[in-house]
Design brief:
40% of the residues lie in helices and 26% in strands. By secondary structure, it is α/β, with parallel strands linked by helices. Among the domains are: 80 residues, Arc Repressor Mutant, subunit A; 104 residues, D-Maltodextrin-Binding Protein, domain 2. Strands 3, 4, 5, 6, 7, 10, 11, 12 and 14 form a 9-stranded mixed sheet that branches. The chain has a 3-stranded antiparallel sheet with strand order 9-8-13, with no helix packed on it. A hairpin with a 4-residue loop joins β1 and β2. α1 packs across α2 and α1 packs across α3.
Length: 296
């Protein structure tokens, strides 16, 4: 019978990107880990890892084997969680990834509350605008704010919130350029746009009608906070999620333009590897975020 501990050792070595880091975390001699993985390779009759003095890489079959070994490790963690009562009080580390704007606008106010609610849980947030492979990089949850539908990636998707996008401008701009009364009027206004390849917005009326609006491109930035500051300076009209400009609308530094129209929706979706989503701690985090955003 195969030694399943070797499967788990292999998964830990890959997760920690080498024998030495895994040895430190597991408090096991590096030579022991290397020996067990070598024995596993001998038993399977394949090479799982390419070893050099400077690099640690998996073979193609090693990558396939890792996915199953990692799944087995997750199942073992879930079994242990039940025994230790994690269903009653979630604990352990939950790793979350999100873009920088999503971390700032969506998670900054939630994760400290989460940590206070579950004192035995360790929350790790990685904010980055690069593409993150949840499975290969060992993340439990990705929080995505997106305009279009997400592609089918084989991950579990849970939509938790949608935020309307408004057209807004500073009172000083509208006083100088005039207030538009319909989408056609936007052609004579300065637009603060979010994309070099888009020259305007698709607007949807509250009665369901949809039209295209094409302002004069005055300023382009693919970062919402930059567009917010540009609008506050009186540079032109822009489209922003409600949650980003809500305070400015309330204090009067920005006003809605064409309030009967909206410029789309920003959807917040949680993504999880199938088996990771079964862990009690991960389920607790997902439910916490979903409940707060749904109420918010």
């Amino acid at each position: 019978m195969r030694n399943l501990n070797d499967f788990i050792i292999f998964a830990h070595v890959v997760d920690h990107k080498g024998f030495a880091p895994a040895a430190r975390v597991l408090n096991v001699p590096k030579s022991t880990l290397s020996k067990r993985v070598a024995e596993l390779e001998k038993t399977l009759g394949v090479r799982l890892i390419n070893r050099t003095s400077r690099r640690f890489t998996m073979t193609e079959i090693g990558e396939d084997f890792y996915r199953h070994a990692a799944a087995m490790l997750i199942e073992a963690e879930a079994a242990e969680a039940v025994v230790k009562g994690r269903l009653a009080e979630p604990s352990g580390t939950v790793r979350i990834t999100a873009s920088v704007p999503t971390a700032q606008m969506t998670l900054a106010g939630l994760l400290p509350q989460l940590a206070l609610t579950y004192p035995k849980m360790r929350v790790v947030l990685h904010a980055t605008d690069r593409f993150v492979d949840l499975i290969q990089e060992g993340f439990d949850i990705a929080v995505r704010d997106h305009f279009a539908s997400l592609p089918d990636s084989g991950l579990v998707q849970r939509r938790v919130a949608a935020d309307v996008i408004w057209l807004v401008a500073a009172p000083s701009y509208l006083a100088r350029k005039g207030v538009p009364f319909g989408p056609d009027d936007l052609g004579g206004h300065d637009g603060l746009l979010s994309s070099l390849v888009s020259d305007g917005w698709t607007l949807r009326h509250q009665d369901g009608a949809a039209v295209s609006a094409r302002p004069k491109p005055r300023f382009v930035a693919d970062e919402s906070h930059v567009l917010l500051e540009a609008a506050l300076s009186g540079l032109g009209i822009t489209a922003l999620p409600h949650k980003l400009c809500r305070a400015e609308i309330e204090n009067g530094s920005l006003v809605r333009v064409l309030p009967e129209w909206q410029a789309g929706l920003v959807t917040t979706t949680l993504l999880m590897p199938h088996r990771r989503g079964q862990l009690p701690s991960v389920r607790a985090v997902v439910d916490f975020i979903a409940d707060r955003l749904a109420g918010g």
